[in-house]
Amino acid sequence: MLSLHDSHVFFIPPMRTNRSTPGFSMEVIGDKIFVVRIRPGTDAATKLHVGDQVLAFNNYKINAKNFEDMVYLLQIL
Fold first, then answer.
1. Per-residue DSSP letter, 64
2. Using CA atoms, how far apart are residues 45 and 61, in angstroms rounded to an integer?
3. Which of 1, 52, 58, 59 shows the smallest number of beta carbons within 10 Å?
């Protein structure tokens, strides 16, 4: 459905039984993706710093154009 690029077509996945939240947040700034927040006490806090540029996430190369698709695929589904 992502390839349709139609705002009227969407998928609502079933509720998850196990919740997991990443220890950091990323945002698009200009045409690059950067780490903007890190939750203290997480594994991410030992490996990342605010301002680090993100080139790939779980071997999935990301950029400003496919960032929203990556968030949808890896964090929502």
1. T
2. 22
3. 59
Element (H, E) at 72: none
Q: What SS3 state is found at 77?
A: coil
Secondary structure, 3-state, 2-63: HHHCCCCCCCCCCCCCCCCCCCEEEEEECCEEEEEEECCCCHHHHHCCCCCEECEECCEECC
Reading the chain (77 residues) residue by residue, the pLDDT tens digits are 667 778 788 777 777 776 667 789 999 999 999 999 999 999 999 999 999 999 988 888 888 988 888 887 766 66
Q: How far apart are CA 26 and CA 53, in angstroms?
A: 9
